[in-house]
Amino acid sequence: MKRILVTGGAGFIGSHLCEKLVKEGNEVICLDNFFTGKKKNVKKLMDYDNFELIRHDITKEIYLEIDQIYNLACPASPPHYQYNPIKTAKTSVIGAIHMLGLAKRVHARILQASTSEVYGDPEIHPQPECYRGCVNPIGIRSCYDEGKRMAETLFFDYHREHNTDIKVIRIFNTYGPNMDPNDGRVVSNFIMQALKGEDITVYGDGSQTRSFCYVDDLIEGMYRMMNSKEGFTGPVNLGNPVEYTMLELAEKVIQLTGSKSQIIHMPLPSDDPAQRKPVIDLAQKELGWEPHIMLEDGLQRTIDYFKEIIWKE
């Protein structure tokens, strides 16, 4: 049994992680400022004696005694992180400093939830961990992209200077239950539009690609990385290497929902990556991990979740 801190624990991914850790018998502290996280995501965990929920912003210091830290705190969808870009950058950078300082003080292992956005609009496809990226440092996505890149820098500097026990993962597009229906991500957008019979908005010509990992697969990879051998720091790509165009995704959502929605095209947002697909050889070798849930199965589970939300409305 470990005492584990999960920052951003009431968010989409964090809530699934908290549930796994709690049900394994660990003492879990969920930290969230509820900017994008929702109390309802962890409501069912409140009945467990080994779960604690604290409202806190990691741009402020906090003092706790813990064994492990999963640092997930940061808005991750473009509408949310662009709403307050300075706050987004502070969360990634100052938040990382505070969490690394905490890990250093109490000798805890700390995992950074980084992102495939560190690769920017990649010139290499698919993207291995050794690729250094092609990121616009002054664009509308820079607060998130560069914030996460700087967080990785801090993690490795703390490791080199203070021997802090770090783990770094780079998360590729993830989807599943507990997603915010209005978060602006492509999977939630398409599903909600299809269920409501609205036009499905595809940006650009729809030929841009993404690879989609179901949240249960991602959580398993995160857990394995946190508990991997000492000295293996990463970064490690965690994502599904099967690639789909935006048009293919839209058509699958229409098919699975039985919707009569039509696909319409809108202008492509600034700095939107044309391709995104992980090389997961390192995760397979070091963690024995690869995703198992097919897109159709994961989409159906996510559709069922959003149907329930709409029904409650």
Please describe what this structure looks like.
With 313 residues, the protein is α/β, with parallel strands linked by helices. It has 9 helices and 13 strands. It has a 7-stranded parallel β-sheet, with helices on both faces. A two-stranded parallel ribbon has the order 7-10. A two-stranded parallel ribbon has the order 8-13. Helix 4 links the parallel strand 5 and strand 6. Helix 1 (12-23) packs across helix 6 (215-226), helix 5 (186-195) packs parallel to helix 7 and helix 7 packs across helix 9. The mean pLDDT is 95.
Q: Kindly provide the radius of gyration, computed on alpha-carbon positions and rounded to a whole number of angstroms.
A: 19 Å
| Content of β-strand | 15-25%
Helical element count?
9
For the residues shown, what is the average pLDDT?
A: 95
Order of helices and strands: EHEEEHHEHEEHEEEHEEHEHH
Brief summary of the model shown:
This protein is α/β, with parallel strands linked by helices. 38% of the residues lie in helices and 17% in strands.
Outline the fold blueprint.
Elements: E1 3-7, H1 12-23, E2 27-32, E3 51-55, E4 68-71, H2 78-83, H3 85-106, E5 109-115, H4 142-162, E6 166-171, E7 174-175, H5 186-195, E8 200-203, E9 209-211, E10 213-214, H6 215-226, E11 236-238, E12 243-245, H7 246-257, E13 263-266, H8 281-287, H9 295-312
Parallel strand pairs: 1-2, 1-4, 2-3, 4-5, 5-6, 6-11, 7-10, 8-13
Antiparallel strand pairs: 9-12
